[in-house]
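call fold(seq) -> tokens
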Amino acid sequence: MTTLRSLAFNLLAVLWTAVLALACAPLLAGRRGAAWAAGAWAWGLVELLRHVVGLGFELRGRERLPDGPAVIAANHQSAWETIAF
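ret:
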């Protein structure tokens, strides 16, 4: 079952990437459009992971973030965290 879900996720992720790339091609010329497209792509992948693979996440420590600008340094264990951030 794990293999089937992994294959389904990979297929859907490639399709999501292709559809979004074609639909958002005009937006990529501007900085705001590119940032929106990147956010939409990452959101779509996280949703696919949640629904197809069953992967969830829990956000902890947000109350300890300062009100102003801050640098967050993460000890990455996988590429998933890069997409989720």
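DSSP finds three helices and no strands in the chain.
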